[in-house]
């Protein structure tokens, strides 16, 4: 049985709702969902994750990276909705694992 505090439940619910809103935004205005790699690293760093996790999540197949062309210095783009969904899943997994 998993026991969560009200604050843990609130925090996870807030993440899930935010991810849902971002997914909706992506469906009605796809271009507004794209963020550059530097922006994505800043975003996850502000949430307490190491910026290097971005590359690890891509390597693990948990996150998609899109490049505008095949050139070495081409911009890498990420979906903010995808990042928020992943972070919500990670938070839920942490909550479940801490119950053991």
List strands and helices in order, with pairings.
Layout: H1 6-28, E1 34-36, H2 37-46, H3 53-59, E2 66-67, E3 76-79, H4 80-97
Antiparallel strand pairs: 1-3, 2-3
Helix pairs in contact: 1-4
N-C termini distance: 9 Å
Number of domains: 1
Helix share, percent: 55-70%
Portion of residues in beta strands equals 5-15%
Shape: globular
- Label the structural class: mainly alpha
What's the SSE pattern?
Answer: HEHHEEH
The major beta sheet can be summarized as: 3 strands, antiparallel
Q: Show unreliable segments.
A: none
The pLDDT mean sits at 90
The largest beta-sheet arranges its strands as 1-3-2
The number of helical runs is 4
* Rg measurement, Å: 15 Å
Strand segment count: 3
What does this protein structure show overall?
The mean pLDDT is 90. The chain has one domain (6-97). The protein has helices spanning 6-28, 37-46, 53-59, 80-97; strands at residues 34-36, 66-67, 76-79. It has 100 residues and is mainly alpha-helical. Strand 2 (66-67) and strand 3 form a beta hairpin. The chain has a 3-stranded antiparallel beta sheet.
Compact description:
It contains 4 helices and 3 strands. By secondary structure, the protein is mainly alpha-helical. It has a 3-stranded antiparallel sheet.
């Amino acid at each position: 049985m998993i026991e969560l505090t009200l604050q843990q439940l609130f925090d996870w619910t807030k993440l899930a709702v935010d991810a849902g809103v971002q997914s909706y935004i992506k469906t009605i205005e796809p271009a507004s969902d794209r963020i550059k790699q530097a922006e994505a690293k800043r975003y996850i760093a502000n949430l307490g994750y190491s910026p290097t996790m971005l590359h690890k999540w891509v390597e693990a197949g948990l996150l998609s990276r899109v490049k505008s062309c095949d050139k070495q210095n081409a911009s890498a783009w990420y979906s903010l909705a995808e990042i928020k969904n992943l972070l919500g899943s990670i938070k839920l997994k942490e909550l479940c694992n801490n119950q053991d």
